Amino acid sequence: MILGRLSGVLAILTGAVSGQAAQRYCDPVTSICYSGWTGGNGIWIGVALPSTTTPAFDTALQIISPIANGWVGFSWGGTMPYVPLTVGWVNTASNTSIYSSRMAFGLSLPQPFDGAEYSYLQGTGYNKTHWTLNVRCKGCSEWHDVDGNLASIDPNGAAVKFAYAYARLAPREPANNRSTFNSHTKFGHWNLDLTLGQNAKFNQLIAANLVPDALKPSSSGVPTSLPTSVRTSTLTSVVPTANPGPIQTGIPMSCSGVSALHFPTLTVDGWKATKVAGGLTQPRGVIFDTAGHLLLIQNGLGITGHTIGSDGCLTSAKTIITQRNLNHGIALSQDGKSLYASSATTVFAFDYDSATMSINGSSRAVVTGMDNRGHVTRTLTIPPKHPNLLIVSHGSNDNFDFESGNMKVGRSSIKAYDMTQVPTDGYNYASGGQQLGYGLRNSVGLAFDSDGMLWAVENSSDEIHRGTVDIHVDNPADELNFIGDPSKENTQWYGYPTCYTVWKPDFITDRVFSVGDQFVMTPNDTFSDDTCTQTSVPAKLALQAHSAPLDVAFNKNSTRMYVTFHGSWNRNPPTGYKIAEIQFRKESTGLFAPSHFVNSTAGYKDIFWSPDVEHCSTTQCFRPVSIVRDKYERMYVTSDSGGEGELIIFGRV
């Protein structure tokens, strides 16, 4: 419906709410009173609830946004992952505004969420300048957090934390409330006094303003939880062969029943990529088990297992573990009997049978106490030369996590834990285990060279300034770091959150820098650029700023390293969305190192990329995440693009 009374409502709001102070506002259309706030870009958000003292209770949400905003999102828990999210946008096909119920299982496209029930209220619609979404929600005041614990809103809280986000671009399918949409342009947090939004006759007001289901949007295009493009149906059992897995060494031209890649890609001469599965649910970490099956983390679903045919294509799939908080990390013990997977807060161990791709019994927590804020994916790996150790990488809890500069905090760090000595309640991440470096902002990709030394790629900070000058488009560099022997304690500091690596020195005008030099955002007498040089471990190779390296893998003799660049989420123009190759050599010390020095911008070459990267986004283009290499030197690579979750086989031809 077109809003005939929106101008009057906006005039009242302008007088009722100024700046970011929450105030009580009663909507003249519905008579529902909200605790409301005017945030970024002229967006008004109000929350209404009954007069109550305990959850669970129904809530009402009002969003009024300038028409220029493609979508606006609201977090009922004040953060992005593992809380109910309400997203709204204009649906011109039905001449109204539309809601979308979502939940995110990491810093990725929030997935459709059926745990909350919505109804439209009177006043929903749009005019030439603004759109309004009025909804009643059942299931937004109480939910289960990342660990399965019940969380709720305090109805009498005087400063309840909420969050919002908005984007300029509209969703891909505005008439479909399960549509994909691009990352936010901006986000923010604020507190509301919910006593200001209490309504003594809440239920009566809601009943009087409910809108019939004629406005109910399309829900076509719902993604499936298992790949739709494998050649046979879901397995209930698997019978191993004497020689499991592929027996051909090349890259197949195509896989039967599998569609083409969702987005165009290019490869360097001599390489080929073929899609082996699509329709996946945000695929992340991928490994082989000892029987040659692929095990895959699907973020928000759990772990799926996939058999591989003689040509390298997938032949069948099954769900091994249904556990929605498993979001990235996966590893398997060398004997194939212990499967490890992680949520934001906990590493779980499962007794695993490779022959049947199944688990036995319940999971047990082996590492606990990790932070559930900020970068919530954890990377797990087991050193080939030290199979008793489990390596766990933990990122920062924010863009600038200043507390993590203290090693004892246990964030922005990599640690090792002896799986033969696990305490009854598991290790605490911060206080247990052995340190393998800290000041590593978000080292998602880990790999061992053929000498057993550990390497890591790091995603560096966004929104960087040098003093008052914005240098963030091409600084700081993402990094390739040498961690070393995983069996030996490493208490070295790698710089974050104070020291960063230069990628484009011309952007920093107050001092002459070279690529790979270290710098601070605000040099002073206490801590300067030179302090970084003296106290932090420099990167071994600088990588394009904001390209987001997420995984690394060596070839069998460690002369080459392969890196997935997930792609930037808010850089203009975008960068990344590719796979690159780094040449390695042996130094006089006997250790492996990149063939190019840290001051080079030619230290790697693209071997797989998106042809129109300037148009890429979180829902456009193939977004490489994780790599696993088979015995023929071919790589299986996941992509968690919002357009379609996919898996490719990639290698030389």
From TrEMBL:
Keywords of the record: Signal
Pfam families: CDH-cyt, TrAA12
Signal sequence range: 1-19
Gene3D superfamilies in UniProt: Cellobiose dehydrogenase, cytochrome domain (2.60.40.1210), TolB, C-terminal domain (2.120.10.30)
Keyword Aminoacyl-tRNA synthetase: no
Annotated ranges, domain Pyrroloquinoline quinone-dependent pyranose dehydrogenase beta-propeller: 268-644
Keyword tRNA processing: no
Cellobiose dehydrogenase-like cytochrome domain ranges (all copies): 25-203
InterPro entries assigned to the protein according to its UniProt record, in alphabetical order: 6-blade_b-propeller_TolB-like, Beta-prop_PDH, Cellobiose_DH-like_cyt
Protein name: Cellobiose dehydrogenase-like protein
Species name: Massariosphaeria phaeospora
